[in-house]
TrEMBL record:
Name the UniProt record assigns to this protein: Hydrolase of the HAD superfamily protein
Pfam families: Hydrolase_3
Annotated GO CC locations: cytosol
Organism, scientific name: Lacticaseibacillus thailandensis DSM 22698 = JCM 13996
Keyword Hydrolase: yes
């Protein structure tokens, strides 16, 4: 069989509880890599948090992090940055609406003002045990902009103010300074302009020589739709939102019942 490029979202797709990959899914992905199929995780998480999940599968697994703003290829790490103007306007708009924004480099979280404790708790759900991520309160926009040469993406988390989040998203989207997406109803993901998971998928297809027809993408959330549309074999998890299931070519079992493993066992055997 010719090689297939296999790409999976993490939360709600590869990981069972945001932190662990099941043994059966690990086995299935390693069998696929043994057969010559490259494998990448693709996530909105910062690179360090994505890498630790990828390594649960194998040290051969590649990483697409920060919603496509950073990815691995042939031992190199490719970066796209949010930029100073996007950081400035995000800081201004979120401050005006009383929301908390977090900005990510490969291994550090930056923020300007101390967030509410429930927002900080929501962010830490994604940090696995045993991994210490740098967290730095920079205090001012000026100090934030000093880190612009390393900030790839950001997130606004608002579990208690849906209307403020909606208005913030509308205002930032209208400025057209960045790509604005979401992985859940209570957040807004900030990605460099013209970049999302799909751009990383296209770049990897070009670099590996594996076409869309032999690209398998698994996802469950709205921010997975772009990359799924770049795949000839798009697979919605059983727990995926309706919009993802609507555009997917296939649907498999949910992330808590080894949907990835079950699909690969059938597809790579019969394709």
């Amino acid at each position: 069989m010719e090689p297939h490029l296999i790409i999976t979202d993490i939360d709600g797709t590869l990981a069972v509880d945001h932190q662990h990959v099941s043994p059966d899914t690990v086995t299935a992905l390693n069998l696929a890599m043994d057969a010559g199929h490259p494998f990448f995780v693709a996530t909105g998480r910062m690179y360090a948090l994505a890498k630790i999940i990828a390594e649960q599968v194998s040290d051969r697994a590649g990483v697409i992090g920060a919603n496509g703003a950073v990815y691995d290829f042939s031992g190199q790490r490719v970066h796209h940055l949010l930029g100073k103007e996007a950081l400035t306007q995000t800081n201004n708009v979120t401050s005006r609406h009383g929301l908390s924004a977090f900005y990510f480099s490969d291994d550090t979280v930056y923020y300007t003002q101390t967030p509410p404790t429930f927002v900080e708790a929501a962010l830490r759900v994604f940090q696995p045990d045993g991994l210490t991520v740098g967290v730095k309160q920079v205090g001012t926009l000026e100090n934030l902009l000093k880190r612009a040469d390393r900030i790839t993406n950001g997130i606004v988390i608002s579990p208690r103010d849906a209307e403020g989040l909606r208005r913030t998203q509308e205002e930032l989207a209208a400025m057209d300074l960045m790509h604005v997406s979401a992985s859940n109803h209570d957040n807004m993901e900030l990605i460099p302009r013209g970049i999302d998971k799909s751009t990383a998928v296209r770049e990897l297809q070009a670099k590996t020589g594996i076409p869309a027809s032999r690209t398998i993408v698994f996802g469950d959330g709205m921010n997975d739709i772009g990359m799924m549309q770049e795949a000839g074999v798009s697979v919605a998890m059983g727990n995926a939102v309706p919009a993802v299931k609507k555009i997917a070519a296939y649907t498999t079992d949910d992330n808590e019942h080894d949907g990835i493993a079950k699909f690969l066992a059938d597809y790579l055997k019969t394709e």
